[in-house]
């Protein structure tokens, strides 16, 4: 793992570059320089602001290479792809049953608590 020579004086978290520390410091200062012109929501990080903007613009930059369906978030595409691959990364520790989505596992867990 890479060396992390730069540290946060507030919480001790370490970073590989000064720029990453500068970005992190917004967590402590509460600085939110990115403002949505549509709804006024403010963001500390540019990438979170840009992801939020897709709610208003309808932009869907992530596309499935199997069926062509498009998504606003990369995580949504990843979850969708499991439907094509059959991957079931979420497993019940009680009975071993596996699930494609975390929400399905959470719903299933109610069976064991009844």
From TrEMBL:
Residues 6-33, 34-61, 62-89, 90-114 form the C2H2-type domain. Keywords: DNA-binding, Metal-binding, Nucleus, Repeat, Transcription, Transcription regulation, Zinc, Zinc-finger. SMART domains: ZnF_C2H2 (SM00355). Gene3D superfamilies: Classic Zinc Finger. It comes from the Eukaryota. One of its GO terms (molecular function) is zinc ion binding. It is found in: Nucleus. GO terms for cellular component: nucleus. Transmembrane segments: none annotated. The keyword Metal-binding applies. This is C2H2-type domain-containing protein. It comes from Sparus aurata (Gilthead sea bream). The lineage of its organism: Eukaryota, Metazoa, Chordata, Craniata, Vertebrata.
